[in-house]
Amino acid sequence: MGDHPIIVMKFGGTSVATPEGRSAIASRVTEALELGKAPVLVVSAMGRKGAPYATDTLLALVTGLPADAREHDLLASTGELISAVVVAHELRGAGIDACALTGAEAGIGTDGVYGNAAITDIYPAGLLETIALGRVPVVAGFQGVAADGRVTTLGRGGSDTTACALGVALEAEAVEIYTDVDGVMTADPRTCGGASVLDVISADELFQMAKHGSRVVHMPAAELALASGLAVRVRNTYTDHPGTQVADIASYRPAGVATAVSHSTGIARIRVELPAEEDAAAHMAAQTRVFHSMADAAVSLDMFTPSKTALVFTLQEADVDRACEVLGTLGMAHEVRSGLAKVTLVGAGMHGVPGVMARVAESLAEADVNVLQVADSHTTISVLIAADQAERAVGALHEGFGLGE
User: Fold this and answer.
1) What does the pLDDT look like over 50-71, one tens digit per residue?
2) Which tens digits make up the pLDDT trace of 149-160?
3) What is the rounded average pLDDT for all residues in the chain?
4) What's the structural domain count of the chain?
5) With bands split at pLDDT 50, 70 and 90, how would you rate the model's confidence at 253?
6) Residue 233: which pLDDT band, with cuts at 50, 70 and 90?
7) What is the spatial distance between Cα 180 and Cα 235, in angstroms, rounded to a whole number?
8) How far is it, in rounded angstroms, from Cα 228 to Cα 5?
9) Are 66 and 162 part of one and the same domain?
10) 74 lies in the same domain as 172
11) Which of 135, 151, 180 is the last residue of a domain?
12) Mean pLDDT of 199-205
């Protein structure tokens, strides 16, 4: 197996949680071996909240107790360890020589930040030795170790990032991300009944979808795919659907102006009163104080828009209290509006095309959606709206740009 091309196969929580799912995993690995590949598996914790070994279920064991960040990450990491052992056992039962590995044993080094660590180094010697011995490594995703040996987790969805980072470090032929849907869809099917599976999507579009609310692929994983040119495919564990191929920018040809619609809820908007723009020095100094103070308080800002007398920005509702405390300390008057959502049209084909914003506005107006704020980039147009209009807005943009066709 040592000379065979490596393929990294990541399986999500719904795939590893049931006997049927684990049997399907064994079939996928058998297929890869028969094709002459050297599979490296990455697994998530088993199931979703409520399932006995899901991460949220495990963390609920210490809810309400004094928080200890190191122990919180230790507990959070155990779900993937259970999955790795169970899946390795399943593979051996199917006649495949497999072994479970922790993130540390797989050589995954992090920056040491609890709860949302970034992968800084991969030391693949142990994995490569395992592969050379003809064994299939089953790596616990979502975790790594800091330089001093502390276990740290990579944030929700971090197993995707584990898989892509290993794909780069091992110079894998491809990374396949297996889930319980057929691939990346044009919108969240729970919100938009007309959503369909995309045959191909650019790495940049996938990154923008993840950044703006889609949960199909973890955002750092999409960023890795974009930066590295890694070959990634999103597939269904349970079906033979070919899935969605993630293409690099050079080979991608967008089929239309837009590719997909993402959305996120739980957003608030804050308006901060500033000195009048006529006093330019004081006006800019006040803006700078807000930005620096929010950064120091680890409050992430989005869709910020300055005006002559104010600064308006959005943030997660969970960060509102901290942001208001910061503004109170600065002595700055402010107003908060909660219960908002951001809906984002994503498409590499919209760059330089006139009339896209007009089409967005028309689609939303026809659906009686009131737009509070707009932000755009080369490949996205985001609108801020009331959360109770989000489903209507997603459907209107999806239909207005013909994404279900």
Assistant:
1) 899 999 999 999 988 887 999 9
2) 999 999 988 999
3) 93
4) 2
5) confident
6) very high
7) 8
8) 18
9) yes
10) yes
11) 180
12) 92
Which CATH number goes with the domain that contains 378? 3.30.2130.10
In a domain, 1, yes or no: no
Residue 71's alpha-carbon distances to 52, 114, 152, in angstroms, are 19, 10, 10
Query: How far, in Å, are 10, 131, 386, 403 from residue 383 at the CA level?
Result: 33, 48, 10, 18
Share of the chain above pLDDT 90, in %: 81
More confident residue, 371 or 180: 371
Work out the end-to-end distance of the chain between its first and last CA atoms, rounded to an integer number of angstroms: 43
Indicate if the alpha-carbon torsion angle 136, 9, 230, 44 is positive or negative. Answer: negative
Q: Tell me whether strands 38-43 and 136-140 are parallel, antiparallel or unpaired.
A: parallel
The pLDDT of residue 130: 96
| Residue 173, amino acid | E
Residues 268, 172 share a domain: no
In this prediction the pTM is 0.89
Q: What is the pLDDT of residue 1?
A: 46
- pLDDT of 2 > 60? The answer is no
pLDDT at residue number 248: 79
Show the domain range for 98. 6-180
* Side-chain-facing half-sphere of 25: CA atoms under 13 Å: 39
Query: What does the alpha-carbon distance between residue 145 and residue 107 come to, in Å, rounded to a whole number?
Result: 8
Of the three residues 180, 199, 231, the one that is the final residue of a domain is 180
Nearest to 346 by CA among 254, 229, 281: 254
Structural domain includes residue 236: no
Do residue 40 and residue 136 come from a single domain? Answer: yes
> What does the alpha-carbon distance between residue 361 and residue 363 come to, in Å, rounded to a whole number?
6
| Judgement on whether residues 176 and 269 belong to the same structural domain of the protein | no
> Same domain, yes or no, for 17 and 153?
yes
Phi first, then psi, for residue 332 (nearest 5°) are -105, 125
Residue 189 lies inside a defined structural domain of this protein: no
**CATH code of residue 119:** 3.40.1160.10
Is the residue at 252 inside a domain?
no
**357 — pLDDT class (breaks 50, 70, 90):** very high
**How many Å separate Cα 324 from the centre of its chain?**
28
